Amino acid sequence: MYTQALNTLDPQAAAEDSVLEARFQARIDAEEKIEPNDWMPAAYRRTLVRQISQHAHSEIIGMQPEGNWITRAPSLRRKAALLAKVQDEGGHGMYLYAAAETLGVSREELVEQLLSGKAKYSSIFNYPTLNWADIGAIGWLVDGAAIMNQIPLCRCSYGPYARAMIRVCKEESFHQRQGYELMLTLCRGTPEQKAMAQDALNRWWWPSLMMFGPSDTESVHSGQTMVWKIKRFSNDELRQKFIDATVPQGHFLGLTFPDPDLAFNETTGHWEHGEIDWSEFARVVAGDGPCNRQRLAAKRKAEADGAWVREAALAHADKRRQRQAAAWRVAAE
Amino acid sequence: MTEKKMPLWEVFIRSRNGLAHQHCGSIHAPDAEMALIAARDVYTRRGEGLSIWVVPSAAIVASDPADKDMLFEPTASKVYRHPTFYEIPDEVGHM
């Protein structure tokens, strides 16, 4: 309903913009939520569309690395949990697309931006899931990192995004717990199973740290989004929180982190990490990660394969509507 | 994209018997029947609901945020509409 009554940009109104912007910022400062039909600066709208749709695309592409293992889950319990998790991710994508649509973009445009490669999704989903332990590592690390990012988003200044994030966070906690439990089971199993868990941690640790985005000194979008209260914490702050929470969990599993510089600083009370390979991050974001082409190709194929179903469903709905109308005409005559 | 746009529906869910349906989000679907199925899959994966309504988004008439003050502000001064406005002696007991 929100998409139909959007503010259209009126050139005459440009002069009033500074007044409107000041009023808008005052509402944000007072922790008021901005709703779809409220006035907002064009840049705020653009930023939100970019961020929310990127978030939605990540959920949708994120179904692929895990979906890969549904048929090979080692037990019915694990299979049911993985199915539910992948289904949740589809659902999260839907909540988020709906939130983005309240800003005046259509679902079709958003999907098109993903398929054409114009819109980005989280770099993490361009890494392959090579063994079953990867499913545990994704739940524990990737979903753990996502939760760190998403909990502050529940207080984001844009109402529909904040509400979508509340639903997502409620459901996401099961994802992390099932992943950690899977890792724990492997670590308490045979030496081979524990080695699988260690191998998964070795491969997923650094990409998980990169999920928080560039360091604060490099991040182009951070400053303004903090003023607008879209973001509440900087990339580095969130990354630090994640490391502090996760390292003791890894040690409990009896695993080691693939970072020789990882050390606890007694004075600050934080875990300090070694240098992140930002050139790898830049490569993956630019489309040259291990699975970028595969992920997009799979999504394009799914979209193309489903086109006839959407067309048929719309044609069927049209036909039924026409028949109904004809029946009413006959009844009236 | 040349594809025809999928209609938008607003989803309302009644969480427990006796409570009103509450708006929880929106979905795209070609018709009402499929809208109900999609709403069930997207919004009730954990026993959130006992009943679902779907309404074509285009059928909703909303108040204009610009009229907010005109519509809702006048009630702020009408304190006599609240029970606490009236003083009843303690001896009378709970009322």
From TrEMBL, chain A:
GO-annotated cellular components: cytosol
Any Pfam family hit: PaaA_PaaC
Coiled coil: none
Superkingdom of origin: Bacteria
InterPro entries hit by this protein: Aromatic_CoA_ox/epox, Ferritin-like, Ferritin-like_SF, PaaA, PaaA_PaaC
Entry GO MF terms: phenylacetyl-CoA 1,2-epoxidase activity
GO biological process, one term: phenylacetate catabolic process
UniProt xrefs under PANTHER family: 1,2-PHENYLACETYL-COA EPOXIDASE, SUBUNIT A, PHENYLACETIC ACID DEGRADATION PROTEIN PAA
Protein name as annotated: Phenylacetate-CoA oxygenase
Organism per entry: Prosthecodimorpha hirschii
TrEMBL record, chain B:
InterPro entries per record: PaaB, PaaB_sf
Top-level taxon in the UniProt lineage: Bacteria
Entries under Pfam families matching the protein: PaaB (PF06243)
Protein name: Phenylacetate-CoA oxygenase
